[in-house]
From TrEMBL, chain A:
It comes from Paraburkholderia terricola. It holds the Pfam family Transket_pyr. GO terms for molecular function: pyruvate dehydrogenase (acetyl-transferring) activity. The keyword Cell inner membrane does not apply. Keywords: Oxidoreductase, Pyruvate. SMART domains: Transket_pyr. Its EC number is 1.2.4.1. This is Pyruvate dehydrogenase E1 component beta subunit. It comes from the Bacteria. Residues 5-189 form the Transketolase-like pyrimidine-binding domain. Gene3D superfamilies: 3.40.50.920, 3.40.50.970.
TrEMBL record, chain B:
PANTHER family: HYDROLASE ALPHA/BETA FOLD FAMILY (PTHR43194), PIMELOYL-[ACYL-CARRIER PROTEIN] METHYL ESTER ESTERASE (PTHR43194:SF5). It holds the Pfam family Biotin_lipoyl. This is Pyruvate dehydrogenase E2 component (Dihydrolipoamide acetyltransferase). GO terms for molecular function: transferase activity. Keywords: Lipoyl, Pyruvate, Transferase.
Amino acid sequence: MARKITFSQAINEALSQEMARDETVIVMGEDNAGGAGSPGEQDAWGGVLGVTKGLFHKYPGRVLDTPLSEGGYIGAAVGAAACGMRPVAELMFIDFMGVCFDQIFNQAAKFRYMFGGKAVTPVVIRAMQGAGLRAAAQHSQMLTSLFTHIPGLKVVCPSTPYDAKGLLIQAIRDNDPVIFCEHKLLYGREGDVPEESYAIPFGEANVVRDGDDATIVTYGRMVHYATEAAQKLAKDGIEVDVIDLRTTSPLDEETILESAARTGRVVVVDEANPRCSIATDISALIAQRAFHSLKAPIEMVTAPHTPTPFAGVLEDMYIPSAQQIAEAVLKVRG
Amino acid sequence: MPIHMITMPKWGLSMEQGQVNGWLKNVGDKVAKGDEILDVETDKISSGVECAFDGILRRQVAQEGDTLPIGALLAVVADAQTPDAEIDAAVEAFQRDFVPASAEAGESGPQPEKAQIGGRTVRYLKLGEGGTPAVLIHGFGGDLNNWLFNHADLAAHRTVWALDLPGHGESGKAVETGSADELADSVIAFLDDRGIDNAHLIGHSMGALVAMTVAAKAPQRVASLALIAGAGLGEEINGDYLAGFAEGSSRNALKPHLMKLFADPALVTRQLVEDIVKYKRLEGVNDTLRKIASEAFDGNVQRTRYRDRLAQLAPRTLVIWGADDQIIPAAHAQGLEGDIRVHVLEGKGHMVQMEAASEVNRLLDDFLGR
């Protein structure tokens, strides 16, 4: 029987197995080593939510605490990667990425291109994103599309523990900079994960459910809402393809277009704000390349164009729901 | 004549429920023991539910699309004379008393275990007690779950062991050369480790080749050989399938190949494909599969053949094949010399132990004796 572990444990296991396999893999971030050696503390805290807990003692000297200065240590991670290490930097909240944009956009993403392919930058930046934790507007954003926009970066958004492990292993082995987005409400989610090491290739979407009546394209936490909507619709005899993108860069265009052409009815679901988002990007792709197969306008289900509200009731309304997704499918069905 | 209840079967250890995919017999049809009366799909596989009685299908209790727990009432078979009122009363009584097994109870059943044997992790499943034990050996790219429809039935009368060969399932993935010799040695090491002196070896496909190699190397360990769609009995094998399986890594690449395993390609569920994709992603699997394939096969040709000395390998031998096997031709079951029982099942494919599980279980049970 396959063993069930959480999303958070799956990330920890991927890090541990890659650190055991390759000694150039190091972990750095805020409070990854914090707490170790203090009175009453047997172990390091393992980051703000304890995802890297246990690695500090297992791999001495390779789990580094950093100052509360994202600009500083993300720059250091990019530099270390350019010099032969494979750093995995943990940046607490993706919302703080703004202070490291030069390091990421102008340096990490450009080295391979501007040095004529002679430089590689195998850095992974892990960051949690997404709404639902009552953490207010500065700690709840979905910024996947910002990074997806930049050529030279790869962007990963796992939805299950199985995918989290396999995609993180692939991210660490990849020679390009990878932004690894972890939805904070997925950390406790359990699923079957093999104990052995495995890598999931980038750019290969996961078709979570099959159906010929409509296509839902989504990623991250919304995969579970989309699946819930699809299960509900199946009871009424409406069978829906649910496509989990897994990586937004590279993008599995083939799987999206094949499904869209087959069903002719598409709903794109994105927890992010709607403008210049993954939802608009996928909609544009389908509109351009599968227009003649479409039987109805593409529907988008997204958060509204506002910051994430702090008030619980408002935050719950802000996040797309399974109900909204099901309604959107009924709308494209006509 | 009594009223017979056809209920949701339990296929494999993890099955808790099944979905009714469609009826193959109509109310009023005459049904015989062994007839498939409806199709059921689990998260692992689809299969037909066989009738264990002769009679008339009097009720289709489950509706197409229903998802029902194991043991739930699907259909009623009785003779034509049984009054409707009696059947309705029996259905009502069944439904009133039926309590689905809880998920927790399902999980407390036997689970596969792991052992370190000869420096390698070996996963195995043990079911049943007593008798001369049977050891189930899966084929190329398979694992012990290839026997999920067979384990429990065979274990009713003897201890049954199913193992994952090196490079397969959850056993260690590294092999040296990947030869049939090496795989056979790993089976002998397993028998030693588990204290199994003498066993019936039941092999499917490449597992049959491994079983015969064990018999050639350690004849005293083998009570009998049961070879299902076996490699090692003739020259041809579908090299395209082997290459496609070994090289494919995505669902789209693998699915067309996996559909060749069954006479009815609809039996290849998305979960079955997904499980294979996940297996193939595991570190070391693709290298090992390439090694094993190139040791055992050269394109469309099998390198090792026991055909001419099959009868000398073991005291008794049974050969079962699906007539529509697209991987290894069923013709290899013909013209075998010596006292060998041969059964070729019409309309079934390479995974005949899954596709015609009840029939194969009956043949095996009958052959093994009690």
